[in-house]
Design a protein that fits this description.
single chain; mainly alpha; globular
């Protein structure tokens, strides 16, 4: 799996997406990224080995599907819902990639 580690690139993606479909989701994404960074910094100071840039970028881009507007993917982004009722969310979310302490 490839991750976006460069904050400038992540911000460019968000800016591009906002130009495609401007809306309040843009500022929401920035606020979520800032909150995530603060949480990760606290955890890091508590001794946890975390990639703060990765967490920040993931939070910044968590609603990136909104660039397409009000679509099925956009609704999932806004509601943060899980679309596959018959799928096991543990498998679909690839929780096995997340360290147990996280």
């Amino acid at each position: 799996m490839k991750y976006i580690l460069d904050r400038n690139y992540a911000r460019e993606l968000l800016e591009w997406a906002n130009r495609q479909n401007p809306g309040p989701w843009y500022n929401h994404s920035i606020n979520v990224a800032n909150a995530t960074e603060n949480i990760l910094l606290e955890l890091s100071e508590g001794g946890y080995d975390l990639n703060i840039d990765l967490g920040y970028n993931a939070a910044l881009l968590h609603d990136i599907g909104r660039y397409k507007g009000f679509t099925g993917n956009g609704i999932i982004c806004v509601t943060h819902s899980f679309p596959c009722k018959n799928e096991n969310i543990e498998n679909a979310a690839e929780w096995n990639l997340v360290s147990k302490y996280m």
